[in-house]
Amino acid sequence: MLPPILSNLRIPVVASPMFIVSGPDLVIAQCKAGIVGSFPALNAREGDGEAPLLDAWLTRIAEELDRHNQANPDRPAAPFAVNQIVHRSNARLERDIEICHRHRVPIWITSLGARVDVNQAAHDCGGIALHDVINNVFAKKAIEKGADGLIAVAAGAGGHAGPLSPFALVQEIRDWFDGPLLLSGAIATGRAVLAAQAMGADLAYIGSPFIATVEANASADYKRMIVDSGAMDIVTSSLFTGVSGNYLVPSIRAAGMDPDNLEGADPSAMNFGGNAAKAKAWSQIWGSGQGIGAVRDIVPAAVRIDRLAAEYAEAKVAICV
C-alpha cells in the first residue's frame, strides 16, 4: 500500500535525481505538472565560505510550490524529493541531512548504501525514505535498516544502473515486500509506466527523458545528443565513478576515448563531493538510460509530462479493450 504522499499523483511517476542536470527549475516544473520532482543534494554546490546553496534551493522550491498550490487549489503540485549519496566519501552528508531535516523534506531518496540514521532523520521530520537497489540482497538490507520503500534500478537505467532484468528484480522483491516499490530502467513512455505497474511496481522512476527539457541544467549539446541517440548509443562502464553506469557513446568519443575499450575502476575509489578534479575530468561524459529512443525533441518538462499522461491513459484503455 502506498503512503498518502505518493497516492495522489497525476500519473504514477517519480522523476529521478540526475547528477548536475536536476536543479530547482526542473524540480519545480515536474512537481507543478503532477509528478514527484527530485534532485541530488550534491548538485547544490557552493564555494568555500559561502552559505549552503542547498538551503537556498529548498527554500525556493517550497515557496514556489506553495504559491502554485494557493493559486491552483484544484491542481496542487506533487511533493518533491532530495537524493542523498550516503557513501562514506560524501563529506557533506551530515550537513546536508541537517538542512533537509530542518526544511522538512517530504521524500528522501538514498543511494550507495543504506543507513539507519538517515532513514530516522527522514522519519523525524515527517518524511519517507526510499532507497535505490540493484538486487534483492540490497533490497532486504535497506528495509531492515528502516527504509519505507524501494527503487529497483534494473538493466537499462541511466546513471548507476543494475545488471538485472526488471522482470526478475521486481519479482524477487515482490515475493516478500508489499510496500512502495518503484522501477527504473529505460522507462520513457506512458506505456512503459503502465508496464512497470503490470510487473508489480507501484510507480515508475524516470530520468533520461527529462534531460531533453527546457528546464534541465544540461548543455545544449547534451540535450541534443539525447534526442539524436538510441539504445545502441549507450555503453556500460565503471570507469567514471567507480560504480557501473550507463553513458552516451558519442560523449565518450568526443572526450577522446574508445567506448569499446574502457578500463574498469576500483569501487573503493568512489568519491562523491570530495574530488573536484576527478569530477571536472569527467564533466563531459554524459549519462543516459536506454529508453531515449522515444525522446525526439527538446520541450518544457510540463509538455513531456502531458505526453506521458496521455500515453498512460491510452495504454490503460487499450489493455482493457
TrEMBL record:
Give the matching InterPro entries: Aldolase_TIM, NMO
Q: Does the keyword Heme belong to this entry?
A: no
- Molecular function GO terms recorded: nitronate monooxygenase activity
A Pfam family found in this protein is: NMO
- Which Gene3D superfamilies does this UniProt record tie to the protein? Aldolase class I (3.20.20.70)
Alphabetized UniProt keyword annotations: Flavoprotein, FMN, Monooxygenase, Oxidoreductase
State the family it belongs to.
Belongs to the nitronate monooxygenase family. NMO class I subfamily.
The protein depicted here goes by the name Nitronate monooxygenase
Organism whose genome encodes this protein: Paracoccus lichenicola
